[in-house]
Amino acid sequence: MFSPGDITAILLTLKLATVVTVLLILLGTPLAWWLARTRSWWKRPVAAVVALPLVLPPTVIGFYLLVAMGPDGPLGRVTETLGLGLLPFTFPGLVVASLIYSMPFVIQPLHTAFEAVGDPPLEAAATLGAGPVDRFFTVAVPLARPGFVTGAILGFAHTIGEFGVVLMIGGSIPGETRVVSVQIYDHVQAFDYARAHWLSGVLLVFAFVVLLALYAFQPTRARR
Amino acid sequence: MFSPGDITAILLTLKLATVVTVLLILLGTPLAWWLARTRSWWKRPVAAVVALPLVLPPTVIGFYLLVAMGPDGPLGRVTETLGLGLLPFTFPGLVVASLIYSMPFVIQPLHTAFEAVGDPPLEAAATLGAGPVDRFFTVAVPLARPGFVTGAILGFAHTIGEFGVVLMIGGSIPGETRVVSVQIYDHVQAFDYARAHWLSGVLLVFAFVVLLALYAFQPTRARR
Amino acid sequence: MSTVPGDGLTVRLDLALLGFRLDVDLLLPGAGVTALFGPSGSGKTTCLRAIAGLEAGAAGQVRLGDRLWQDSARGFFVPVHRRPLGYVFQDAALFPHLSVRGNLDYGARRARGDGPALAFDAIVALLGLGPLLARRPSHLSGGERQRVGIARALLARPRLLLLDEPLASLDDARKREILPYLERLRDELAIPALYVSHSIDEVARLADHLVLLEHGAVVASGPLRATLARTDLPPAFLEHAGVVVEGHVVRQLQDDLLLLDIAGGQLLVPASGQAVGQVMRCRIATGDVSLAMAPARDTSIGNQLPVTVLQVVDASHPAMCLVQLDAGGTRLLAQVTRRAWKRLGLAPGASAWAQIKAVAGLG
Amino acid sequence: MSTVPGDGLTVRLDLALLGFRLDVDLLLPGAGVTALFGPSGSGKTTCLRAIAGLEAGAAGQVRLGDRLWQDSARGFFVPVHRRPLGYVFQDAALFPHLSVRGNLDYGARRARGDGPALAFDAIVALLGLGPLLARRPSHLSGGERQRVGIARALLARPRLLLLDEPLASLDDARKREILPYLERLRDELAIPALYVSHSIDEVARLADHLVLLEHGAVVASGPLRATLARTDLPPAFLEHAGVVVEGHVVRQLQDDLLLLDIAGGQLLVPASGQAVGQVMRCRIATGDVSLAMAPARDTSIGNQLPVTVLQVVDASHPAMCLVQLDAGGTRLLAQVTRRAWKRLGLAPGASAWAQIKAVAGLG
Amino acid sequence: SLRIAAAADLKFAMDDVLSEFRRSRPGARIDVAYGSSGQFKTQIQQGAPYDLFFSADIAFPRELHAAGLAASDVVPYAVGRIVLWSVRHDARGLTLRDLPRTEFNRIAIASTVHAPYGMRAEEALRAAGVWSAVEPRLVYGENIAQTAQFVQSGNASIGIIALSLALSPQLRAQGGYALISDSLHAPLEQGFIVTRRAARNPHAHAFAGHMQTPGARAIMARYGFELPARADRLR
Ligand SMILES: Nc1ncnc2c1ncn2[C@@H]1O[C@H](COP(=O)(O)OP(=O)(O)OP(=O)(O)O)[C@@H](O)[C@H]1O
Ligand SMILES: Nc1ncnc2c1ncn2[C@@H]1O[C@H](COP(=O)(O)OP(=O)(O)OP(=O)(O)O)[C@@H](O)[C@H]1O
Ligand code: MOO
Ligand SMILES: [Mg+2]
Ligand SMILES: [Mg+2]
């Protein structure tokens, strides 16, 4: 049914989506928290900037990232100076690009969820001796769980599906950067519809299961 | 600075993003409301299915839509029987495709926001004589405003930026389906970087302003 | 006050919650105030919610007058918004997205028309909401929120009022302002109200009918006076309740006092607006009745009635006992020390004088 | 109880909210209960919040004993979680994502160690939370929620308790269960508490110190007894307050009574656990004091004291007046009808007998 | 190992050429990525790890060569042809001059902005004098494969695609094609280079040589590519 290439691509995709989702949650949470709590003038501009990558076509973002991370780009110079080499066409490069592109899908739900937490439970926690970090983890995060679930779902799904950025920055190297989306795209481009359908079908079923599992973390509504 | 083609593309994009965002809010709201309120067994599967299109690469979705809306596809047969002709390569076709692809970005935040409304204000409204529709519009919708803002932002931005589906289903017809994302992509592909930068820049600035305006609808946090 | 089935509020409900079951069968008067009394967690809120139609799991029947609201045997259920009721929630449940004015208007605009109309300005003034109209609920104090909740329910022109501890977080002064108003509502509007309260004062003052709940079941239900005169109720309740007597005003005296004709004698009561001939209700707390073997002279105690001792029961403090007295037809309840009981040599059947230190006119 | 600055709670705060300004300068005792009393919207909650450090906009100084918590002049501010306090919020503010046990543990686990340790099980039993431990707050009744809030604050081992109407939605029986416990806390733990309540009974029973707030400003502040004996306070307050007397237990009588030595005489009081020699506090409500020109015989009234009339002031009802009395050093306040006042020919300086119907032992 | 970047129109021909080459080098790991030639050029400029670059437009490898990014000369390996292709109509007898007919309500060509096949299609339409008549009915594919899909799905009644695709096993069975005279457009000269990073990759040079073998050339011819003279080097 599947070529070895398909299986490699599936495993690679899983790895990418998982790494990116985890990193997005880790990196996005502090930013979303800041957005939700600050009274700073910068709040809205920053929130708008976070959503901004969305409006550019993925390939174009991919192009700019490619140039920026390339040997003459500002990011590329930094990574080379640090001895990390160049990011494009490597798995870490894919991760960085996906982070940037999927960021808004995680930040936005977290931002909304953190705002919905409100002051009272945080104030109550403070009076019980919980410091800012403590109450963040023991009150804000559990209460914002729906936002984490939504953010994880959107971030995960979008990282699986996005391929414009990935194609540009990854260059479709088997086992390294050729993810399922690229593989399916290739099958379609090669008029190899049977394999495209198969791979799409498997991807959909698998994603369905993952999404369903994520939804299981969604708390159910209280009665009063 | 801009070719007439650029300006046509900008106007077309605005029209598309606006129409799609408005329709997504209109169509997504009842579904999100159902998802938030139902205790049905179907709730989680349906929620997962809504997010599912995300995991397929846009061009692949576009391909399936192209086939489905084509003369031999199920959707195409329906539209032809209805005397609407075929949807691919038309603006309405673009709208339909964008609706499908951007749907999860609107449904998810609305779903979360509606769940956060909770029973008490709806119960209070009911005791004051507000029927289900009345309390939906006068209580649930205003209280879910952050979700509407987030949904509108993600839906709008994503419709502007997505071009895989649009490319596949639209056929890049100037004034009809050639949106800015395609135009920028074309410039990049043609190594016409100056125009690509310009157009990207204008798109970013414009989108920034729109997003900032949307954020202005975000209520500020209450003190207690 | 009437207990004709066709006119009253019938509540026959059975509802199971987590670790709790409400099982009540009540026939309540179709006018006046019914107090719902009971310890924390006894099911008062649940009962109100079920009557309103907010508890989807409640089986049974609810009927107000000739209108059936619910009959689960027949699968009949009038949804909440079609039940013309006003609900004051225990936690106010204001709309956070609307100003105080917006909250009030919400109810007023949807007023179902068949309930009595109340002037917006009058209610705002009564509840002291004038300066708050533009505020959001998040910018109100606890008591302010509760007042907005009361006003909102009243402005909806309900035919049944459900009040869940509406005055719990109000100070005495504010309570004393609002209570007469609720009394007037009770008397003038003739709409029935179910009133949950922990304050016996409030209950004695407002209620015509009393329901005692415990563990989700009805311990007692009946007209206020009859129920309060029962000695088989928990002593803690009896002590705090006192008795309620009714009489006709026979004369207005100087010094703002009224002379009241009651069964078995006359009482001097501070005036509260009644005219000669009108019926007036007073509460006599158990602690305000002392016993003597002969009438006292030269005392500030204005009311002394000859009584017969009916029975004695334990009070909640072991030093005290509750003595039920008959004052020529009026039942009184006195809380005295056991020491005094012995010293005076009292026993059921004995004659004595009840000295009534204070009588609170209840309007 | 001490008012040495180095030992007490200093609160000097100025805070402007929407349409409201809190401006207080208080020096409160470093042990015992201070009652914060005042009408709805007078700033009680705001004051508690500011002391806790929850009102970022509050300027001024807060100091508990030798620990400075806040001094905005010097830009000094100890954040809320470093102030060892226990806060019972007016609306409980439980964590919706934790069970009752989770809520209690939250405070207990972060207990700052220097406050007194209280046994988890004892508090759970006292507040009747045993069967509720596994529940979510959304599945609790209003009073149950409040009880969890109290338990949670106590388990945090605070050095200052801030209680915002902790008993407001509890029934009398439950209140009577919890009050002695709070009293014991007050006496044994020697941590100061600020107690907001609308119930004068609660205040009189618990408080050592009284602060009256109105429109965000302090109307009166002082030791409970002295403040309650003032006649320049609003009559509505005086009437409900009554006076508080303190004395030594001299003898235990049969029938669960105690004989109490007070300045100017002796009182018979229902026992509440005190031993001979101990100090006991009692509240005498204005309505429980009547006046006579001679001692009465054969009456169930057990306490009669010779008194001198000091002054008379208006009560809130025009038929009534408040008479301040001196019983050989103990101040009493009697509420009698104007009619009786005249009939007995009373005037400042006159001698009379105060008949005290009920004395409530306050522990 | 060997990594090849190849223009999308080469998909079928290259797969066949490679299966032959692989037989000669068992054990060598050979990957191909098919895609847009322009995108490959950009990626190689940014250091993409491709050893060989087969472009649909010889201009791209030339630019890379000029920038010093090639380890070989630019080798022309084929000249592409364009055809009229349809699944709804019998295209076999059609010429570009038939396109203005109303039954061809949607005509698919590749992007005239960046796809070599699209540019040649435009030239041919102009040369045939039908450009202004058909322009309102044109739909543009992002690349030549997508253009073929527009036609294949029936959404475009006819399209101009690469002969190599029309001859591919997947599309050959559907519809028919008519070759467009190469006098109507500039030649679609296709060329490859060995990239600089593969200077010392024996597989890369071996495969460059393999493309010149009669077997490889026969495969290319079978997919409709015209072949430049052997070892003809252009600069
Ligand atoms: N953001 C705000 N939150 C709460 N109260 C506010 C706010 N802004 C202004 N106020 C006003 O501050 C005043 C004091 O409120 P506070 O909550 O301290 O009153 P309170 O004495 O606790 O009253 P209550 O007995 O009704 O709880 C009120 O009049 C309230 O309307
Ligand atoms: N989902 C639920 N919501 C509220 N109460 C519940 C729920 N499930 C179970 N209960 C229990 O139902 C019982 C009755 O609750 P109810 O709110 O009716 O009490 P109440 O008499 O109004 O008490 P209170 O005076 O404390 O408000 C309580 O013991 C409560 O713990
Ligand atoms: O191979 Mo292309 O660049 O799609 O014409
Ligand atoms: Mg309740
Ligand atoms: Mg308050």
UniProtKB/TrEMBL annotation, chains A, B:
GO terms for molecular function: molybdate ion transmembrane transporter activity. Keywords: Cell inner membrane, Cell membrane, Membrane, Molybdenum, Transmembrane, Transmembrane helix, Transport. InterPro entries: MetI-like, MetI-like_sf, ModB_ABC. It is a multi-pass membrane protein. It comes from the Bacteria. GO terms for cellular component: plasma membrane. Gene3D superfamilies: MetI-like. CDD domains: TM_PBP2 (cd06261). Residues 10-216 form the ABC transmembrane type-1 domain. The chain crosses the membrane at residues 12-34, 46-69, 81-101, 196-217. Belongs to the binding-protein-dependent transport system permease family. CysTW subfamily. Part of the binding-protein-dependent transport system for molybdenum; probably responsible for the translocation of the substrate across the membrane. This is Molybdenum transport system permease. It comes from Luteimonas deserti. The gene is modB.
From TrEMBL, chains C, D:
Residues 4-240 form the ABC transporter domain. Keywords: ATP-binding, Cell inner membrane, Cell membrane, Membrane, Molybdenum, Nucleotide-binding, Translocase, Transport. The lineage of its organism: Bacteria, Pseudomonadati, Pseudomonadota, Gammaproteobacteria, Lysobacterales. GO terms for molecular function: ABC-type transporter activity; ATP binding; ATP hydrolysis activity; molybdate ion transmembrane transporter activity. Pfam families: ABC_tran, TOBE. Residues 298-363 form the Mop domain. It comes from Luteimonas deserti. The keyword Transport applies. This is Molybdenum ABC transporter ATP-binding protein. SUPFAM superfamilies: MOP-like, P-loop containing nucleoside triphosphate hydrolases. SMART domains: AAA.
